[in-house]
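Predict the 3D structure for this chain.
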Amino acid sequence: MKSSELFDVAGLSTVVTAGASGIGLACAEAMAANGADVTIFDIDGAGLAAAVERLKAGGGAVRGEVVDVRDKAALDAAMAEVVARGGGLDVLFANAGISGGPGFRTTDLSWPEATAFENLPTELWDRVLSFNIGSMVKTIQAALPHMKRARAGSIIATSSCSATKTELFVGSAYVASKAAVAHLVRQLAIEAAHYNVRVNAIAPGPIVTNIGGGRLKDPAAQAHFGKYHPMGRMGRPDDLMGAALLLASPAGRHMCGAEILVDGGFTLGTLN
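Done. Predicted structure below.
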């Protein structure tokens, strides 16, 4: 089979959550540029409009819907609209997530008392877990019935390398939430496979995005995290495009419950 057929996503009805920027936008762009019919959900109306305009300028079939992934009713309605408009739902990128605040050590390797686990605000813990795993559940629940009826579909969740390793500089709530996402993918994959629906995850390392207020866009932060990557740099959103196409396309047709690590070697440790 030729690669053009193996990775063919043309015409696939695709939803990407938090697709106005970062990893979501990169996944939306990869799909749209290769002929998929893409709908982006995002709570940021202005960012959403700019993203849609950008992808349409590249020739993509893209539309945007202002949707709060914390709102199950809104997700149900928006997903039903996508299905009614396109005749089905083939691919879901469940990507939305938020930061869990700083870790227990700083980049200069000090141990601030304020970020010790016993001082973690309950409100922060609840907010991060509710958003990162709670909203993931609501998003998949809104999409899965449509795929089960069609007995076809691919659900791709954004996990994190933080689901597989301990972290010094990342908040405990984020790490716990992403570990929950990773295991949810494995558990759900068993159930959904009975309906020929594949569920997999992409696990990025540190990526330069807007998460955490965009603090990873700071050149100093990038230089710091780059030291922990054998490849010498943090990831960019477009580094995830290949994994996105693999899991969405026929090339990934026998991948079920997998978690693709795209981290520049971050989980391997440093060279010094």
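Helices lie at 3-6, 22-33, 45-57, 72-86, 122-150, 172-193, 219-226, 241-248.
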